[in-house]
Write a structure and sequence with these properties.
This protein is of the alpha/beta class. Helix content is 40%, strand content 24%. The strands form three sheets. Strands 3, 4, 5, 6, 7, 10, 11 and 12 form an eight-stranded mixed beta sheet that branches.
């Protein structure tokens, strides 16, 4: 068993596609398939099932990846140790965030406050599940994410099971994100009703298809019978492009205080969903009992000012 094989398995599991994993790893797809097949023969069980729908982990494969992913992450850190040693003399801060502009702005302000000091910032973005895994696997010191209120208690229990802590920053009203093609885009109102979203295509992150927040559209009264057409993706930029170009909508939580100071996204509008009691509870996560770096404390001070 070689580290390259572990890296191959982890990447295929992340992508759910042999083809995409091969592209990301800069190897041919046949060589990737052979590598994984050899590993499966060595461990004595099948890690993936292959079908026309893609590549999926078996139950044993999921357990394998749960062990392999932290090993690969730590190996990458060792590989980069030579570069990291040069950075140990400077301040270092790594953060995993949702792909929201105001969170990036907070990291930029950390940089601007330390122009005279050698610092190293590592900024990663992703959905909630990937942010949690980054913190659990020591890929980032701090994570910033939101938890929709109907799922808050269960999500906090899951974080505690992973030895992570969640610290609340504030709560934000759930909104609908629409583009210029939507009939309500030029409305004088700051709100929108579920009836005005009826029949429109819902665009969301993958986690709303099969992840922990998949019941959210139904809770908001925007289930399949109301909005039968769905598009799911891992990419915030893809969501924005689709909403800008069509009469579709997405479910977001817009921090109006933060966006009063920085520009919102062009070509879209965020409108509170009328008579909706659902909130997005924003907060930050770290490992339990972790001591935060000075730069992390500066980042959190800036971030707290947005709430």
């Amino acid at each position: 068993m070689r580290i390259e094989q572990l890296r191959h398995v982890v990447e295929v599991a992340r992508c759910g596609s042999m083809r995409q994993a091969a592209l990301n790893l800069y190897i041919s797809q046949p060589n990737l398939s052979v590598s994984i097949q050899n590993l499966e023969e060595e461990v004595g069980y099948q890690i993936f099932t292959r079908s026309s729908k893609g590549t999926q982990l078996t139950k044993a494969g999921k357990a394998f990846v749960d062990y392999a992913a932290p090993i690969v992450a730590q190996f990458e850190r060792l590989t980069n140790l030579k570069q990291d040693i040069g950075q140990l003399q400077s301040s270092y801060f790594s953060v995993a965030i949702l792909p929201y502009r105001y969170l990036t702005e907070a990291a930029i302000q950390v940089y601007n406050h330390h122009l005279a000091t050698p610092i190293h910032l590592s900024i990663m973005d992703g959905d909630r599940s990937s942010i949690i895994e980054m913190i659990a696997n020591d890929e980032a010191e701090l994570g910033v994410l939101g938890i929709f209120s109907p799922f808050y208690e269960e999500m906090v229990r899951q974080l505690e099971a992973k030895q992570l802590r969640f610290v609340r920053l504030g709560q934000i009203k759930v909104c609908a994100l629409i583009g210029k093609a939507h009939p309500q885009f030029h409305s004088k109102n700051d709100y929108i009703t579920c009836d005005q979203l009826r029949g429109k295509t819902f665009v969301g992150f993958d986690e709303m298809e099969s992840g922990p927040f998949s019941p959210l559209p139904d809770i908001l009264g925007l289930g399949n019978e109301v909005c039968p057409h769905r598009i799911y993706t891992k990419s915030w930029s893809i969501i924005l492009d689709i909403v800008r170009s069509t009469d579709s909508f997405s479910i977001v939580a817009t921090n109006r205080k933060a966006y009063s100071a920085i520009p919102y996204y062009d070509g879209v509008r965020s409108m509170e969903i009328l008579d909706c009691d659902c909130y997005n509870i924003m907060g930050w996560i770290t490992k339990k009992n972790a001591a935060l770096s000075d730069l992390a404390m500066v980042f959190l001070s800036i971030l707290s000012s947005y709430f």
